[in-house]
Amino acid sequence: MTGPMLFTEETQGAVSAPIWAHLDEEWYVRRYPEVSEWMRDHGIESVSTFYEEIGQRYGHSPNPYFDEDWYRQAYPDVYRDICANRVRSAFEHYCREGYIDRSPHWLFDEKGYRRRYPDLTDAILSAAGLRNGFDHYLSVGEKHSYRGHLFFDVDMARTYLATMGISGEGSVLGAYLGLSSAQADAGRVSWYFDPVWYLQTYPEVAREIEDGQYVSALHHYLTNGSPRHYSPQEFFSENHYGETHADVLPSLEQGTFRNGYEHFLNFGSHEGRSPRGGTDLAAYSRRPAVRADLKHGLAHDPFAHFVAACLAGASVDIADSMPSESQTRRLFVQEAEALLPAIRRRPLDFRYEGRPDVSVILVAHDKIALTIQAIASLRQNYAGSIDLILVDSGSHDRTHQIDEWVLGVTLIRFDGNVGFLAGCNAALQRVKASAVLYLNNDVRLYPNAVSNSLKRLSSDKAIGAVGAKIVRTNMRLQEAGSIIWRDGATYGYRREDDPNIAEANFVRNVDYCSAAYLIVRTELLQQLDGFDEQYRPAYFEDTDLCLRIVEQGMRVVYDPSVMIEHLEFGSSGTARSQAMIKANHRLFGLVHQDYLRPQQPAHVRNAVLAREQRSDRKRILFIEDRLPLRALGSGYVRSNDIIRTMSALGYLVTVYPVLPREVEAADLYWDFPDDVEVIDDRSLADFPSFIAERAGYYDLIWIGRTHNMTRLLPIMNEEGRHLPTNGAILDTEVIATPRAFERARVLHLSSGPLTFDESLQKELDCAHYCQQIIAVTPSDAALVARVGYHNVAVLGHCLEASPSPRAFQERRDILVLGAIHDEGSPNHDGLMWLANDVLPFLDRLLPDGILVTVAGYVGSDVDMRVFSKYPRIRCIGAQDDLAKLYDRHRVFVAPTRFAGGVPYKVHEAASFGLPVATTSLIAGQVDWKDGQSLLAADSADPEGFARNIARLYGDAELWKNIRENALAAVAKDCDPVVFRARLERILQSSIA
Fold it and tell me: Would you state the pLDDT for residue 434?
């Protein structure tokens, strides 16, 4: 039986009461068996009357969906109100006002639910007759497997209940909460907690449950007063996490996180931190299958995937996760053999008309299956015209019938095995294309390898040859470009490593690339007479060829987008190959001794210095908070532009983040030039070892943001012997002191004990280390000079005006774009001010249908749910295509009340032809005149700000004038040519 609703229409409007708002009399009497006796003692016949008059004051919960004791502990202000008789119970508080943003139970997270499903705006919920996220979860969300709490997976709970014969009708959460403690503790309802293990590990908890202090093991874990004393399951150790990740301890001590597990689930799992001894979660999460499952939402995070795999009995040990190389080699051959019948039925067609795109030379001695597999891979890889030349080097198997498998092939036959070198040189006389691809017959090509290598070869006339990233059958690197040591020995860079590491994934000039896959200009090959016959039958001929290409003033380029799988030594045999290598090594050293003398000595620690072909190009280490993806906004776009320009100027750039990355490696590289090395697996904690490993490598260090210079200064002092003597630049990005003082003024806060000048001096104390300081604006440069530094230059933004074409009448809605990394940040504060202070005036000036679109990156800790109560605001998060976003909106709004530097978003919006309404502060920062290039109002005048938005939105002529003037201002202030010239001067003056 269900009792009367506590959530009444008189107090809450005409919306029907949620399930959590009722007194569940049957559950109530079961939960508190003493109530029956108390009712008799007090002469009360009605359960609801008893609860109203007595039960709620005793701290009773009214139904399984609301936990009175937990709510009082979780929200101390409510407990104070109860003690002061302002409310009778926590439940009364929740029904009055707490339901708006507070959680009712230890197994439901209201804020987390609304953050996880941002489309559940207040307007959407109200239209559906729902009062909050919990109401939605119980009414709709459970049916669609929405997640209301990390520790309660609806699907797992439903399956668990079914094993006990409990049907899935009604609320799954309600059914679970109705279980006895013995039933609840018999199995999992999430991957994050194991009640059986927990009770075995902590037997005292079972006694506390028996005493009635807790209803289950999960209840104990989530609500006990000593959370750091308990681990939730065998796959996570609270002690290990605290001891291993010392940087987390201050947050735990300050109470930012309840325990290490809370930090781990929110951050550590995604960062790849170790949850227990012997578990390398970072390596596990890099597995292709794991990444694919996470991408498709099959697991919430790497740790949940790991636990599920362990419980399913799957192999999770990283060392054992792949077969041995001998096994993968056998599999490679077996797959080739399995392919033969299909190709025999439907031959591969290489016939073409006209001049081919590329001539491919392939030498084969027996091993027909491998040869056919390589040719099939080639045909599948590239649809264009291929001049395929196959040299049959004295084969005794069915290779002599290969024209029955392959149509249009040019065959050159030898009676005996002449070897790779002689076979290639014979084929060179028959090529018809302007580019020649040397291809082993024991390889498989990865997607777009041929087209990517042709594009790279044609991208610069100085490129003579292009080589591939070569992985072996065990998915470890054979080479990412190759090094020639001083003694003439060779080394495949990063051999044995994961092919996805940063060091293997940027374009660079190298000493040589293996001819297992090497594409070369035909004219250059003919000029060099192909391979040097001295190296017959094979080995070192490709090394020698690459050096002769370099001696011609041409480049040999390693391109990681060209990727192949290689059955190493598959075409000859290891013992014979090693003998040929040894013989030709000495010959190679004698022939090229003049080239070899300046090379690095043969040692793996010298590999980073030797991985690029010797040149005068300077190397820059670029340090930022995060890897500066353009979608992050907040100065990262400018950093990205600086990196792009450095690359265009010919510098070799490595990008290093202070903070761990938050995105997949596969999503990083497209945002940077392909010759930039993006370090995506290290952070501040790894910086000392990184610098020591690369001692003497960099000519310049560029540190983005002053607070990073402060963080790095102790390390740079200690590791100074490994760093360039006269090469450190501090790019302030923004001088924070003015912003901090303006924020204090706007928010009526104390600016602290320091004066403006004292604060400025403290902020820039670290700059003494640097030979050059960069400011974004002349005013910021003046502030740097104000504290005594005169080695300051100005570098602003880089933008080309590219107005979107849509006309005024075809556009609608208002756009607010900007990254919100933290609550209380300038963009977050501005949006709050717009919503609370400006929108009430704007609502009187514009029709209801006109929306304010809020776009841009949102940090994981930022709760955007606060904006869901405004019908006019629509939050859409980060967007890939900003051009479309700017094109369909009519007005851009920048409601910033405190900030420093120059707001890139204003320049960008204007460059797309979207007129801007902003604050006087921003107008002053961009130095644009109000009423000419933008409309501005003081942040103390929200009504005036609203009027400016409405004027721009409704006045086509004003819109057109502002647009044209702003476009002219962007062309003047953000000229890419000027930006490049300034950066070039800065770099040239800083690198000796």
Answer: 98
Percent of the chain, pLDDT > 90?
77
Q: Helical H runs in 720-822?
A: 736-746, 756-763, 778-786
Angle at the Cα of 62 from the Cα atoms of 30 and 104, rounded to 5 degrees = 125
Query: 315 and 321 in contact (C-beta within 8 Å)?
Result: yes
DSSP 8-class letter at 728:
E
Query: Which two three-digit tokens encode residue 984?
Result: 């070039």
Q: Who's near 674: CB < 8 A, 6+ residues apart? A: 506, 507, 559, 560, 561
Distances, alpha carbon 802 to alpha carbons 727, 901, 980, in Å:
36, 23, 19
Residue identified by tokens 């250059």 is 524
436 forms beta bridges with 359, 520
Over residues 99-128, the pLDDT tens digits come to 998 999 999 999 889 888 877 888 788 888
pTM over 0.85: no
Give the bridge partners for 22, in sequence order: 5
The residue type found at 923 is A
Question: Residue 790: what are its φ and ψ, rounded to 5°?
Answer: -115, 0
Question: In sequence order, what DSSP letters do the residues of 89-157 get, joined into one string?
Answer: -HHHHHHHTGGGT--SBTTB-HHHHHHHSTT--HHHHHHTT--SHHHHHHHTGGGGT--SBTTB-HHHH
**Beta-strand relationship, 891-894 and 873-877:** unpaired
Q: Are strands 792-794 and 772-775 parallel, antiparallel or unpaired?
A: parallel
Q: What angle, rounded to 10 degrees, do the helices at 736-746 and 826-833 form?
A: 30
The continuous run of DSSP H or E covering 171 comes out as none
Tokens (6 digits) for 330: 């056998």
Averaged confidence pLDDT in the chain: 91
Which 8-state DSSP code applies to residue 858? B
Q: What is the Cα–Cα distance from 349 to 837, expressed in whole angstroms?
A: 70
Phi and psi (nearest 5°) for 67?
-110, 105
DSSP, collapsed to helix, strand or coil, labels residue 404 as: helix
Token pair, residue 820, equals: 């919100």
How far is residue 475's CA from residue 328's CA, in Å, rounded to a whole number? 9
The Cα 414–Cα 396 span in angstroms is 11
- SS3 at position 664: coil
Q: For residue 418, give both structure tokens.
A: 């002449």
Q: How many CA atoms lie within 13 A of 507 on its CB side?
A: 23
CA distances from 529 to 216, 289, 413, 524 (A): 80, 46, 21, 9
320-345: pLDDT as tens digits: 456 789 999 999 999 999 999 999 99
Instruction: Please choose, from the candidates 38, 30, 72, 80, the residue with its C-alpha nearest in 3D space to the C-alpha of residue 55.
Output: 38
Contact predicate 78/87, CB 8 Å: yes
In terms of residues, how long is the chain? 992
Nearest alpha-carbon partner for 708 in 767, 756, 774: 767
Under 8 Å between Cβ of 389 and 359:
yes
Comparing 195-204, 645-654, 684-693, the range with the smallest average pLDDT is: 684-693
For residue 183, what are the CA distances in angstroms to 216, 393, 515? 9, 73, 65
Could you tell me which residues come within 8 angstroms of residue 887 by beta carbon, excluding any fewer than 6 positions away? 804, 805, 806, 811, 912
Render 558-621 in DSSP notation, one character per residue: EEEEEEEEE-TTTTT-HHHHHHHHHHHHHHHHHHTHHHHTTSPPS-GGGHHHHSS---S--EEE
